[in-house]
Amino acid sequence: MPELPEVETTRRGLAPHVEGHIVTAATLRRPDLRWPIAEEIQRVLPGQRIDAVRRRAKYLLLDTQAGSALLHLGMSGSLRVVPADTLVRAHDHVDLVLDTGRLLRFNDPRRFGCLLWQPPGEVHELLAGLGPEPLSDEFDGDYLYRLSRGRSAPVKTFLMDQRVVVGVGNIYVAEALFEAGVSPLRAAGKVSRERYVALAEAICRILGHAITRGGTTLRDFISPDGSPGYFEQELSAYGRGGEPCPRCGRPLRQAAIGQRTTVWCGHCQR
DNA sequence: CAAGCGTCCTGGTGGC
DNA sequence: TGCCACCAGGACGCTT
């Protein structure tokens, strides 16, 4: 599923095939994903040149002079650049036809994704309240420490709040908490400055590493899917409930925190 | 303002 | 073997 590293990988894979090229047409095979697809995708985008492909949080923006297509991959979405005669498969919801003779094809089985429009000079309201990028200078342990004071929600929930920091999903938060030795249940406001420093470092390191690994799938980005999933073997906590803790060997605990399955070591994480 | 929870959707899994 | 209930996931938006 596309987490921040996959979205960044998608952006990097897309950019060389898309930037500087003109969208000649848009084919919509269904009117809505999570929300109705913005009408500008068919009315305004065709004829425009894509100047840049940007990422904000898990959103991608295709910038043109007339505005930006704003898309989110949800949990099952993918974007591929394919030859124009490529067979349409299930859940290929949108094609942007490029002047290169290829298509930018959006596939999303579960339709948690979206394809919206951001007029020039505006910031879409979905992006307006987002917290800092985890790999930017704005994000560090001090920032987390300051923002968390007085918060009673579990630190896991706090870190997954996109207003606090973007791009930290259920998988990476589990890994970061494990690496930093912090219990996901601890109230955010009761976590010390030192431990937030460790958490921020863990988040940066894990996301950065995952992006590096995502880079390996860049090469065959255009070819049919089948990317191996770089992370599964490397995960310490996520998806390993009941298995021995990689550090102390005691069984990892699993429970729901904030409606989300959470795995952690009751011994190593305090 | 903060926190908690329902909701959207579909493929994959595990149980019977 | 077939069927079905259930779960996973991000994030909005409503309620408390």
Q: Top keywords for this entry?
A:
elongated; 2 domains; Helicase, Ruva Protein, domain 3; about 270 residues; about 25% helix; 10 strands; alpha+beta; DNA-binding; four-stranded antiparallel β-sheet; N-terminal domain of MutM-like DNA repair proteins; single chain
Structure overview:
Keywords: DNA damage, DNA repair, DNA-binding, Glycosidase, Hydrolase, Lyase, Metal-binding, Multifunctional enzyme, Zinc, Zinc-finger. Its cofactor is Zn(2+). InterPro entries: DNA_glyclase_Znf_dom_DNA_BS, FPG_cat, FPG_Glyclase, FPG_N, H2TH_FPG, Ribosomal_uS13-like_H2TH, Znf_DNA_glyclase/AP_lyase, Znf_FPG/IleRS. With 270 residues, the chain is of the alpha+beta class. It has 2 domains: 4-128, N-terminal domain of MutM-like DNA repair proteins (Alpha-Beta Barrel), CATH 3.20.190; 141-264, Helicase, Ruva Protein, domain 3 (Orthogonal Bundle), CATH 1.10.8.50. It is built from 7 helices and 10 strands. It has helices spanning 4-18, 40-43, 125-128, 141-148, 155-160, 170-180, 193-214, and strands at 23-28, 52-56, 59-64, 67-72, 78-83, 92-98, 102-107, 114-118, 253-257, 260-264. A 4-stranded antiparallel β-sheet has the order 1-6-7-5, covered by helices on one side. A 4-stranded antiparallel β-sheet has the order 2-3-4-8, covered by helices on one side. The chain has a two-stranded antiparallel sheet with strand order 9-10. The radius of gyration is 20 Å and the shape is elongated. It binds a DNA duplex (16 and 16 nucleotides) through residues 1, 3, 34, 58, 72, 74-76, 91, 108-112, 126, 150-153, 157, 160, 162, 169-171, 258-261.
